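Subject: sequence -> structure tokens, single chain

Hey, anyone have a minute? Need the predicted structure for the following. Not urgent.
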Amino acid sequence: MRIGLARRALAAGLVSLVAVAGCGVQPSGVIPAGPPPSGAVAPTMTITLYLVKNGRVSAVTRPGGRLLSPADTLALLAAGPIAREQAHGFTTDVPPEAGPFSVTEKPASHLVVTLSTPARELSTLAVEQIVCTVAATAPESPAQVTVVGAAQGADPRNCPG
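Reply:
Had a minute. Here:
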């Protein structure tokens, strides 16, 4: 009696195996699909801003979809931290009225940031935030940065970080 049950179980298993293995896929030859993909891979863009936490300037990165100009990056800085950054204790000393910004490049990796407000009215942390954020956008680091506004300027600086 046990031999008959074992044969039926074996037969049922073989039938199931044949049914699953046969899934209707027919063998075929090689199907040409053209050349493999080529070209440069689009880089993942990030935006680096220097925000204030515990009285010090700290680098913060944000995902970015496209490459921003230095002036657009400074506009993000003046807009302040996003919710996630605020939750981690980041702030900004750069006032929104400091924008719009313009950034010009001088010889020997020297950048000049022009503000819409007097440069001497900014706190030391605000100037440091601007200098470091703009220096992070420069293709050649470290860049020397001069912040000017309303015919007032600060001495050229490098990002201390």
